[in-house]
Specification:
The complex is a heterodimer of chains A (141) and B (284). By secondary structure, chain A is α/β, with parallel strands linked by helices. Chain A has helices at residues 15-24, 46-54, 75-92, 110-126; strands spanning 6-11, 33-38, 59-64, 100-104. Chain B is globular, with a radius of gyration of 21 Å.
Chain lengths: 141, 284
């Protein structure tokens, strides 16, 4: 069976530091994930998330700072509200809200990052593949 | 009766010069119904109210191409009024330049549109009828119930039909961005069918998440009958239940998606106190 592929958008102040620390500690993690560091979780475009799902990515994680701990004037508040709405849309169309993992303020330590990614991976393995939705123009490699 | 009252109000507006023109539907000499800008009270004899025709986008274009202090009155239904208010919020229409003549929809129309509010906030002619709960409707339940796999197959079947005519985007009274992301090769390949269903339809649906006024224009414009309105229903429900927000009711209320959770707290979220790097709790 194919391993699920995960794309992570990590805020450089929390999630990415956690990921970095997890790497420095040489934690064993599932290999099928890629991290894109972003300045703030609010800069993650919902369109990019949808584009990734269409390109055959099985799960997307958005990691940001604490509610109340944003470096950019509470920008993560708007991000969390917007992305929760996107989860509703994904639910409606049967993609399922569990394919979009939102974590705010819980990935800034290596062990937290490790736990989140491992759990997400285990969850995605159980989900049916997204075949009918795949983009007719090929898969992101 | 509703028609006569609307004509009276429109005539009054034109005669008292409250507005430069009244925008509504007209039956022309070939018995074809078309949107028309009534500037002469004598023309008002040809005014009609049916069928449902979203005039908000056209009204916006008229106001944009007119002199700065030109005032326009629009004969609008509930959905049309909500769309105009959303356009005001997005700074496309000056609030001072717009007058509305609100007319109520019939019960049959409300049932066809699955409309929750088949009347405008400022009602001038007609009787309010009660709204329909879309989630009780069989057609909607077919698409919103069942497990993920069933829903996915049902939606995939529907969206695969898309011929990418951009009708849903063009008919939507609130889709006003220029340039549009759906015309950008980064997101959706142009001029290629079959459509990339996920990107095209879900990007379009999500861009309207907190703005959709549930007028159903997208669905009516669709030549292959994709039920596009049903995509918005769950997001509208979340906004209403979590933040008590509904698009197009009040021009002053901003979308909760734009504000911080402290300004507009939602009911079921917990807010952990921020702990700084020294382990001291910040109580503010």
């Amino acid at each position: 069976m194919n391993q699920p592929r995960i794309l992570i958008f990590a805020c450089k102040w929390c999630g990415f530091i956690g990921a970095d620390a997890a790497g420095k500690k040489r934690t064993s993690l599932p290999s099928q994930f890629r991290i894109i560091p972003v300045e703030c979780a609010s800069l993650v475009e919902t369109d990019a998330i949808l584009r990734a799902l269409a390109g055959g990515i099985d799960g997307i994680a958005v990691l940001g700072c604490h509610i109340g701990g944003c470096r950019y004037n509470n920008a993560n508040h708007t991000a969390i509200k917007r992305l929760e709405l996107l989860q509703d849309l994904l639910d409606t169309t049967g993609i399922g809200r569990s394919r979009l993992l939102l974590s705010f303020g819980t990935a800034h330590e290596d062990y937290q990052f490790e736990e989140i990614i491992k759990n997400f991976f285990d969850e995605l393995i159980l989900l049916p593949p997204l075949d009918p939705w795949l983009s007719p123009f090929g898969v992101i490699s | 009766m509703m028609l006569e009252k609307t004509k009276d109000i429109a005539r009054q507006i034109l005669e008292e010069k409250k507005a430069g023109g009244v925008f509504g539907l007209m039956k022309n000499e070939w018995n074809i119904i078309q949107p028309h800008l009534f500037e002469d009270p004598a023309e008002l004899a040809n005014l009609v109210l049916e069928p449902k025709w979203l005039l908000a986008k056209l009204a916006m274009r008229i106001l944009r191409s007119s002199p700065e202090n030109y005032k326009l009155a629009v004969i609008c239904r509930g959905c049309d009024e909500r769309a105009l208010i959303e356009l005001i919020k997005r700074n496309q229409i000056e609030k001072e330049n717009l007058l509305t003549v609100g007319i109520a929809c019939s019960q049959e129309q409300a049932a066809i549109c699955l409309c929750e509010r088949p009347y405008p906030e400022k009602l001038d002619a007609g009787e309010k009828v009660s709204g329909v709960d879309p989630f009780q409707d069989e057609r909607v339940q077919k698409f919103l119930t069942g497990n993920d796999k069933e829903r996915m197959e049902r939606w995939a079947d529907m969206l695969k039909r898309c011929i990418k005519c951009y009708g849903c985007r063009n008919a939507c009274p609130i889709c006003i961005c220029d340039p549009c992301k759906l015309e950008d090769d980064v997101w959706v390949q142009r001029g290629v069918v079959p459509t990339e269903t996920v990107t095209f339809h879900l990007i379009r649906a999500f861009h309207l998440s907190d703005t959709c006024v549930a007028c159903g224009a997208c669905q009516e414009a669709c030549p292959v009958n994709i039920p596009l309105l049903y995509l918005q229903l769950s997001m509208r429900k979340t906004l209403r239940e979590k933040y008590g927000y509904e698009a197009g009711i009040d021009p002053e209320t901003r979308s909760p998606v734009l504000s911080s959770v402290f300004e507009k707290p939602d009911t079921d979220r917990e807010y952990p106190a921020w702990i700084n790097s020294l382990g001291e709790k910040d109580e503010s």
